[in-house]
Amino acid sequence: MPSVNxxxxxxxxxxxxxxPNAQSIHALKDQTKADFGDxxxxxxxxxxxxxxxxxxxxxxQNLLARALTLLKPVRTDYxxxxxxxxxxxxxxxxxxxxxxxxxxxxxxxxHFYIVVFRSQVPPTTxxxxxxxLDEKAHAEATQSGGLLKYWFGKPDENGRNLxxxxxxxxxxxxxxxxxxxxxxxxxxxxxxxxEWKIERLAIVIEDGVSxxxxxxxxxxxxxxx
Length: 225
Prior knowledge:
Layout: H1 22-26, E1 39-40, E2 52-53, H2 59-67, H3 89-102, E3 110-120, H4 127-144, E4 147-152, E5 160-167, H5 170-173, H6 180-192, E6 195-205, E7 212-216, H7 217-224
Antiparallel strand pairs: 1-2, 3-5, 3-6, 4-5, 6-7
Helix pairs in contact: 2-3, 4-6
């Protein structure tokens, strides 16, 4: 392959716990433009073993992963706002279209799997421990393959936050959530969060990146069946 340089039981854990030390971790984003060759920074963790190996992806997935490096919130209440209105998805898709056209690639209709983890962290939670759990879980998810993007925000004044994963496909999310680090993070959910909720979505990108939509996963799978 050529190099192209949108409340569930926590036991069903296809998400990653958001890192509480968001301010310091987000500073690592300054490194995302560094040249890692076949590896891409796709999360707040700009170092191994957290980098996406582009060689494991099909060409279209490679393009989307690169476009997703632009993903950022466009409103301050993203923790509670509708997911599809909370990020600069139009800009991401515009960049994907640009990359696709620049490469002379034909983009065929595809869908990708999104997991959204909304939470509320009480003041009593050990933020350092929570951050360590998140980092280990992310490393495992990255090594299992197919995680194209991981983003988390900073808790608001009420401790509410949002974290999101964009996966190549739903099947990739399951092996990424069964490692010891992820299981430890899942066990800690009930004690470290006041509440949590998981949303499962699909982003559908049509031929030629001409149109796109974010829909509930269950609606998408109903249409497919």
